[in-house]
Amino acid sequence: MFGNRMEGSAFAAINGGVIAALKLMVRRSLALALAIVTLVMALCAGGAAAATTLPVLWTAGGLSAGNDSAGQASSIAADAAGNVAVVSGPAFARSLAVTSYTPDGVRRWQQTVSPASGTFAGNWVVAAPNGDFAAVGVNVDSHGYPFGLTMVRYATDGTLLWRKDIPTGWRPGAARLLADGAGNTYLAMNSIGDGQDIQLIKFNPAGGVVWSQGFALGFMTQDYATSLAFSPDGNDVVLTGSVTGTWITALFDAASGARKWLVSAAEGTGTSDVVVDATRVYVTGRGSVGVNGFLTVIAYDRATGARLWRTDANPPTGSASGSRIALAPDGSLVVAGQTSAGGYFDWWIVAMNNNGSVKWKVRRDQALSGDELPASVFVRADGTTVVSGTGGPVTRDVLGNAYMQGVTVAYDATGTPVWEAFAKLPIAWATALPNGDFCVAGGYDALVTCWRVPGAANYQPVLTVTPISGSAPLTVTFNRAVNSDPNGPIVSFVRLSYGDSLAGVSGTIDLGDGTRTYTLNETSSHTYKLPGTYTASLTVAYTDNTSVTKTAVINVSPSVIPAQPPLITATPSSGTVPLTVALTSTATMDPNGPLINSYSVNYGDGTSSQFFLNFGDGVTTFTNTANHTYTAVGTYTATLTVTYSNATTASGSTTIVVNPVVAIPVLRSTAINLAATLQRSRVNAIGDVVVGNGSGVAVSGAVVAATWTKPGGSTVTQTATSGSTGVARFSTSGSRGTYTLTVNSISKTGYTFDSANSVLSSSIAK
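Below the sequence we write its predicted structure tokens.
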């Protein structure tokens, strides 16, 4: 639980025996192993050659592995201006260091804080919207065990704004640190202790605690947090955690800290990371126990926590585990994990659609030497997946010592490597910069390495037309995408012609001053009123006096209004009494046939309405909506009857079902009886919650959720089931003072909780 920074280490510990056995088999057949290594490395070298190797843009740190340096880098973050900061430790033998650089690699500042005892190791660093950097580190004793957490926040000039030494239980760890749009920071952490193992704390920009939430699945269960993510609108924050064999996912209101739902299920060894979109929460981790582990993703409904789907995606042979997950711009997912097939860990990258179907899988690099573990993953705006971590090929230092290096690989929409980049030391974390470049951190002396990602190499315009055919009048949407080669001419002018007599659209994109516009996407619509064949054209002019034109053909056929029977629809079509229904009536006729003069709607309950559209000259189409309220239970048939100019009629109907209102029995907390005893200096408190129905009759089998508030303000949430007398018993213990038991909810199938008429809280002092 040392910060939970490397979920792969937990995976390795679980499978250590299997991996050791595989390695032993390989080493017993040394000659065969050498042949396999030679062959696989040759294949991997061939695959790597297809991807471009990026040159290093700039690097800093990594100069000394001794006590005179900034220590081991653990995380890196970038602000809106492209400045980066890396957190590391132990810096200069003991301290926690945060070092910041400009986008060009010039060091802005380096600051350290010292521990009261022990040494510091870095965990996470995040950037606030105003350019502040906040970081968290763990305090380690002489045996390497963590015993405390410290948070710091620095202004843009490196001034220490505040420091918080966070009270923790035994062996704490920091799972993730995030900053929201208002500059508040959220710390997900855990410590082994009194049943409050997982904690989520929100700090305001001044360092004050806005709210703090703690929970555990049981007393001394040793739950630990693994990750944290915001919803896209910033309203919710989702925390993941694990107890051996159980996945934990909880969603909180970001403003108030109120927990909206918590799901704990025996999905496998444990969680590792989480992302959230507008409607769903996606969690990844190791999806089973023992040697048959899976790279697993589970989707939950964001509003309710309901489990929507689970996908296990492994190589053809061997187990796997998910480490980090990212959302792509198109709403799909990418998981960076590892597989142990072959005796050593390799990267195992899986892309999925948001319904759980797998888009592609790729493994890197299958060499029988060194464990390759991904550390982070993100998806660029162009859909390119970028994975960073420890990888091969194995390299050697000046003394000939072999070691794994830092590797970053970009994959396209099919999982094919596009480019790769190498750092001299293993990578702990990566961050994208606003201009499209990216930086990684990992290794001694707070090593930072940055690369520039090449821009688009093609400046051919793209013209997309939807639809390309239809009857008049036809409205067509034109999407024009123009890419400018960063090494080629600059886009200066764009003109879109619709191909008819009406003017198109045009605009000056760049005045030729050297500014390079990489992607220009614009959408417009145009209506073709007359039938015919039209050629639309998109012309792009460049500052070197060249131009490129793309065309699209649109076929517009004569207008035809087909004869259709009348249609009536009800919204809603069923419900409880009284039921108000919106009835939509439509009818369309061939203009060469009889015209529509009037129509009537019979609601089926003895009432009706009639509408005259004109004075006899008819129309070809109409749409009308009327609201009607059904006040009695029953099944009704609403009918639309259309009368045409030739005195004929046509009808359509729909059915509305009106159901009676069904009363739902209620559950109430009719009393809370507390008792407390004192044994030496420890208080044992017992609380009995009496559960009854609306008539006061005791109800058994009801699940009661209640929270103890102990002296000093700490809380413990428990659940208990009412017995035959309707009593659900709760207990806790602690120091002397006031104990308050508060009922949160009571649930049983077929009942609803009547909190307004319940006794919800009671206190006792001892």
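Residues 564-659 form a domain with the Immunoglobulin-like fold (CATH 2.60.40.10).
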